[in-house]
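Run log, item B.
One chain of 164 residues. Sequence copied directly from the ordering sheet:
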Amino acid sequence: MADDRDRDGTELAVAEFHKKIKEAFEVFDHESNSTVDVREVGTIIRSLGCCPSEGELHDLIAEVEEEEPTGYIRFEKFLPVMTEVLLERRCRPIPEDILLRAFEVLDPAKRGFLTKDELIKYMTEEGEPFSQEEMEEMLSAAIDPESNSINYKDYITMMVIDEN
């Protein structure tokens, strides 16, 4: 009996995921032919509440691309892969407390902010470097133009995705 309920719950979740994936995919299916430009896949995935790293995104694209890449992704290949990602809760956003601790590591003086120059240094020289476009996008959202710094507690509150 419990197995039936579990299976029914999973089937409901899958049906709901299929609906959300289809809706997100269709936004970018400009030709209405069940394909999207491969460059839109990251946006589609992020619109579904997933936050893959560039490496994870590259792997997901490789998984859904044709044997001979055409520059387009077909819905029938995207759907099962994305359903699995959502069911397994892969590429979830990082919780607020962990983001705060990460910023605090970069702010040993515990000032509550980083200067624009400090942020650029960390974003380009440490870990997985940001592209120029990613860096400009983050800076435009994060930097207070008056102080030329980022109050990271305010920024974290702004960027965290509410999962409810």
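Observations after the first pass:
- The two ends are 29 Å apart (CA to CA).
- The first strand starts at residue 35 and ends at 37.
Flagged for discussion on Thursday.
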